[in-house]
Amino acid sequence: MKKKLLSIILATAMVATMVGCGSATSEPAAAEPATKEAAEEATPAEEVAEEPAAEEASDDLIVVGYAQVGAESDWRTANTESFKTTFTEENGYQLIFDDAQQKQENQIKAIRSFIQQEVDYIVVAPVVETGWETVLEEAKEAGIPVILSDRMMDVSDDSLYECWVGGNFVKEGEDAAAWLKTYLEDQGRGSEEINIVTLQGTIGASAQVGRTEGFANGMQDNWVMLDQQTGEFTQSKGQEVMESFLKQYPDIDVVVCENDNMAFGAIDAIKAAGKTCGPEGDIIVISFDAVAAAFDSMIAGDLNATFECNPLHGPRVAEIIQKLEAGETVEKIQYVDESYFDTSMDVAAIKETRAY
Amino acid sequence: MKKLKLEGNQFLLLITVLLFAVMYVIGLIVFKDNNFGRLQVFLNLFISNAGLIVIAVSMTMVLITGGIDISVGSVVAMTCMLLAWMMEKKGIGAVPAVIIVLLIGIVFGLVQGFLIAYLKIQPFIVTLAGMFFARGMTAIISTEMISIKNELFLSWAQEKLYFPFGGYVNKKGVVINPYIYPSVVMALLVLVIVFLILKYTKFGRSIYAVGGNEQSALLMGLNVRRTKLKVYIIDGFLAAFGGFLFCLNTCSGFVEQAKGFEMEAIAGAVIGGTLLTGGVGNVIGSLFGVLIKGTIETFITFQGTLSSWWTKITIAALLAFFIILQSLFAKAKEKRK
User: Fold this and answer.
1) Above 0.90 for ipTM, yes or no?
2) Using an 8 Å Cβ cutoff, are B310 and B299 in contact?
3) CA of B58, closest CA in chain A: separation in Å?
4) Is the domain covering A54-167+310-325 a CATH 3.40.50.2300 domain?
């Protein structure tokens, strides 16, 4: 009896499933003419007055959809602002901006929506490097070029995106080493043995890998890298690691911090250990990113130099779009211009002029 | 009495469906120049939310028993990570990998169900532990993100099922027919099956009975504990299955994936007319709950300048609206008693 009942249920389930599928496909079909009708109904009245003007405007403007990671840091906010101030209607653009709240699935949704809105270009600052093939294929099929900003994507077919725009972390590291070399020479310590420690970023992050590699490229024969450990890009971890470095190695000359936040932690640790740092102190502190707080630290005389990681990608992306509009091909890898700041400069004045 | 209850629930469902329709029509009017009316925009709601539909369906079932499962988001992340890790690091084929994660989901559900049904521990606490455990395991497997390159898996993920009609020519001159991915078909299949189970089987009716009033369910001779256990096993399985569909969309595994997914599923179910107190709920409503969320997100991206956090605020307003509506119905019902 029970078995019979079960088989009946299964049979009805199967039939209903098929019916369900059938209706699932026919439902949108029925809905579609209706929506067309609705759209047509809505248009005539306004068509006369608005349509020509609107048409013209949308013809002129280049529509750019930007799928941003989120608003997790000052750097990110400056990056967003850079896009918002570059892609304005005065400059001939319409920007559709989406904040993905640090979620990849939100970015995928945003890209799909950009495709439907038929934007001219899609710009993505991917939350993560992986898992983009499907949605990029959809963009490719629709013929919309995709430009990556800041972070790379790990896709097997690099024709899925037009190019990548971002900072050159290796060069930042090399610049830091070159700066240190000149700085030491100016102090007359060019041939002295220099003991260096590094607070690395989160292992595997592109900023960590690039900056570590770049600094290693610029190492001199008389420099000794005593130790390298990760401070995970955070102030508290940076302080913790620096404390242990100071206990282990009594004679540290230079600490390289792979972002500003870790440098702030390291400075606290140095002061707590009764040592001094900065241009007047025992230990030279170098960091990366050049956020506003780093300028304060230089003004206070704690930090020696910071190497910029430029968030202002907007103008560079606009440049690329103009080239693509003109039918030119563009380089796959596009670095933004980056500089550095040290205490020999008028850092207080520079801070006033900076966007982040 | 029973007839009245049914009417009330159907009324709630009707409001949800109506709300979705009204929102969609508003979208059609406001964004008529941005191609909102395209079939593909509607289909994208399903494509982007296939995993969430399955999770919301399974959440609905759990909520009907009067329970809750907040581990699903982490289970989704663990499933994605396991799939990516097995296929990319261990060289396991796509089919066995999927079978393994589904089995793990069942075991996960079995353990949680046993603790809830037989040891009578609060579902919230059990699944809270499950949530931490699954998220932790995800990180233990790999803290680095893994990209899925397995060809068979990618072919499932990228196989477009085109509709033979409703195509459009975009301004680049490319003809694109509306399409869905296999994940959408699978999600709708799950929806239909669970719908039928809840509505037409003895097991389905006992789920409602257990959630409505456990004491009277016991007196009626229902095996309350076994019913609950079964529900959590199915829930575990569907969490893993939802994870699989989610993974088809993202094709990668990493620790932070699907954070807050459980809350989105609960919100979807509640907007769809499911009561957290148990005994009342409908998976069709939950589907529309998810679609409403998707529509709000689509609004935000089409609008282009609003902060995407308005999605959350709108969901909050809708939740408040539906909760108030539900409590008004409950009050009215009591009065008639």
Assistant:
1) no
2) no
3) 18
4) yes
